[in-house]
Amino acid sequence: MKVALGQFAVSSDVDVNIATCRTLIRQAQARGADLLVLPEGVLARDIADPDMVLKAAQPLDGPFIEALLPETCNGPVVMLCIHVPVPDHAKVSNVLVVLRDGAVVAQYRKLHLYDAFSVQESRHVEPGDSVPPLLEIAGFKVGLMTCYDLRFPELARRLALDGADVLVAPSAWLRGPLKEDHWDLVTRARALDNTVYLVAADECGPRNIGKSIVVDPLGVPVVQAAEGPALLFAELTAERLAQARASLPVLQNRRFVRPELSGRT
What we know:
Largest sheet: 7 strands, mixed
Number of domains: 1
CATH topology: Nitrilase/N-carbamoyl-D-aminoacid amidohydrolase
Number of strands: 15
Shape: globular
């Protein structure tokens, strides 16, 4: 499977972000990508306005997603995150949306909200309440995660035990002391812990670190961006996956039961 990661700084202008996403989809298609992963929260971003997630939120049949659907009719599967209004509620959901063949084919509401390092995502966002099903893309089974989910090994392990070969994580990883080290550590660890490929596309710009990355099933970075806008490509192979799992059979050697979602969410 050929994957592409589109790293960019999200604008406060929705139309600008639509244009950026369209361009990245077309570039990924031109290079023969099977999957394009974009960052978290790509509708709109304004550092000076923490309420932007509420103001910019759109339903899945809103103009943002509708503008991108035609681009996927003959292009790659596209994964990105947007904020979606919760009916009859003052909050929104942080939803990973999967676009394929001109339609929304899957969605995952972020389970773990970023209430850490003096940030409180839960002030505006409702957490999800279910583990997402796997998708099949180019012969690989793909599990869905979002940003802060990477810090919780239970979800990655659950998806791997469900059969995932690849974990995908659109992200908006905030800058801060040691945060780049944390990013490098958790992306590599989640891949190595579960002998899966990890594909994490991160936002760049003044707020986030960038450093989008693909990690192979033995924890080796395949490709990684720097801090600026980028479109990366990587080849994921069944041979590398099989080699990793034969030499490091952690999923077979484990002694703990399959993680289940807590009722706390």
